[in-house]
Fold:
Amino acid sequence: MIEMRKEYLQKQYRGYIDCLNKQDWSRLGHYVADGVQRNGEVLGLAGYREMLEGDFASIPDLSFKIDFIVSEPPYVAARLLFDCTPKGDLFGLPVNGKRVSFAENVFYRFADEKIETVWSVIDQAAIEAQL
Amino acid sequence: MIEMRKEYLQKQYRGYIDCLNKQDWSRLGHYVADGVQRNGEVLGLAGYREMLEGDFASIPDLSFKIDFIVSEPPYVAARLLFDCTPKGDLFGLPVNGKRVSFAENVFYRFADEKIETVWSVIDQAAIEAQL
Structure:
């Protein structure tokens, strides 16, 4: 039973990443809870979508690649890899169209099969080292 | 069987954190593999210990606090919390004895019950925001 739930969360998480990569925002509510929190801030589904739309606006070739997933219900942890060319500043760093590679180590807690809490840390030092 | 291994890795990981907090370096090889790699660099057990000793030298009140663990053999993922007063620079930031709080999102892959690979990202932006 526990194993099945784990498989389900992994599948749900891969669906979430696919939804982001397709920028299929109408499906976002299938994966993300209405009251979603990220790094201690209540964004809500609308705010979360706004954040993601902003990410794609500043990084037109943004793509989320899963390096690996560690799952133990109700948590999923993922190492995500990015290889992209942000237009202007990224996290306050003057990237200005340079191609950069970096990782994100991120935890999600699911409730009722949707992401309700996100703890994300992005490797900004790696970006800085590439500028 | 899988569940038991998961419990074992969690126990082993908590033992590792306890070992760090006690700076009991003679026990480190019980938790960390001889050829340990961290963020793509082969440190080896001696290099890993050197890194940790350096951390405690620059941050005399360093203490590793586990926020939560997500484990799925052979991986353990942890969110670690720090609340400390680094003496000089920390990750290139002029902390100089100010008290700062920050998190680390970190993944470990175990082999033969020891940590063989570490992928760590520290929330440096949080530190910067506190200076």
User: Anything to note?
Assistant: The mean pLDDT of chain A is 95. The CA atoms of residues 31 and 114 of chain A lie 5 Å apart. DSSP finds three helices and eight strands in chain A. The radius of gyration of chain A is 15 Å.
